Amino acid sequence: MSPSRGTIFLEQARVLSQLAYDAEQFVLRLAAPKCAAHAEPGSFVHLTCDGSIPMRRPLSIMRAHPGNGWIELLYKVVGAGLHALSARKAGDELSVLGPIGRPFVPHVERPRTLLLGGGVGIPPMVFLAERLGAHARDAGRADVNRASIQSWKPLVLMGSEVPFPFRARPSKIILPGMPAGTLACMPLLEEWGIPSRLASCHEYPGCYAGFVTELADAWLASLGSSELAEVEIFSCGPTPMLEASAVLARRYRVPCQVSLEEFMACAVGGCAGCTVRVLTPDGPAMKRVCVDGPVFDAYTVF
Predict the structure, then answer these.
(1) Domain coverage including residue 248
(2) Band (147; pLDDT cuts 50, 70, 90)
(3) How many Å apart are CA 40 and CA 67, to the nearest integer?
(4) Residue 111 pLDDT more than 70?
(5) Are residues 130 and 96 in the same domain?
(6) Are the CB atoms for 116 and 245 separated by under 8 Å?
(7) Which of 45, 120, 125, 224 is the most buried (most CB within 10 A)?
């Protein structure tokens, strides 16, 4: 039995808000206290979009607030299910199953966390950045034992080929190693004191003109050997981007974790419809993205 089964809950969640952005992108906030209390960066929910559509949809969790009992989901409308979800209003109720899956696991010996998010792969990176940033802020408090708290140094790089689901602005955080003119950031991360930069092939103002993995390559190339020894890559996005992340990791000899996206029906390991080939100590094996993942060691997948 999966170790996550005991922390997957079925809740009747209430829509708190739904914000619309360009290119049919939405940020949905739901009151789902059980899910919020157990969610980890990289986990997702399986939710009912509308009573007329029987199949649930898997969506990554972008933020979770255990104290206030809410979760946030970022999604782009693709198909009838998410189109129906985009019509939901504050006060509506949705059936939510979650949190599901194995999360990202940062390692204390690698505090320079490089977070790469592409398109709808952005949400887990925001969640992970928020958690790492909270640990770093706790480490700076005078009333805590600093030896027991890791001071993380997260850097978030995001790529998109449609307008970003937020209003980008120039960053005030100085970030060595960035190509000239690459100044656009995510305002929410900036407010948290976490550096971020944006990339797109559509030449949006302040964005790096190219893929997010190319921007990551430029930053990694600026680091010395002692700095690279502290780097770990976390990546979520389209499969070609994840493959490129694995190539980067091998080139710079750093660990890399990737969150895979696959079509799934049940999302709890029963149907085995989301299996991928993964290398294990005993040889190749088929693993279920929903409960054996979605986060895997990039070296075992690519």
Answers:
(1) 112-259
(2) very low
(3) 14
(4) yes
(5) no
(6) yes
(7) 125
The DSSP bridge partners found for residue 60 are 44
Residue 136's pLDDT is 59
Predicted local distance difference test score (pLDDT) of residue 150: 58
Tokens of 153: 């140094």
| pLDDT (mean) for 183-209 | 96
Distance CA 55, CA 51 (A): 10
| 54, 156: one domain | no
- What number of other Cβ atoms are within 10 A of residue 280's Cβ? 9
Please determine, for residue 141, whether its predicted confidence score (pLDDT) is greater than 90.
no
Cβ proximity of 186 and 164 under 8 Å: yes
Residue 165 has pLDDT above 80, yes or no: yes
In a domain, 213, yes or no: yes
> Cβ(74)–Cβ(50) under 8 Å?
no
Single-letter amino acid, residue 242: L
* 175 lies in the same domain as 205: yes
Mean pLDDT computed over every residue of the chain: 92
E-strand ranges in the chain read: 9-21, 25-31, 44-47, 57-65, 70-76, 93-100, 112-118, 155-159, 169-170, 184-185, 196-200, 208-209, 231-236, 256-259, 275-280, 283-288, 295-297
Between strands 70-76 and 93-100, the pairing is: unpaired
| Pairing state between β 231-236 and 112-118 | parallel
Q: Write the CATH number for 47.
A: 2.40.30.10
- Tens digit of pLDDT for each residue in 8-57? 999 999 999 999 999 999 999 999 999 999 999 999 999 999 988 989 99
| Structural domain includes residue 289 | no
One-letter amino acid of 54: P
Q: 118 and 245: one domain?
A: yes
Residue 180 confidence class, pLDDT cut points 50, 70, 90: very high
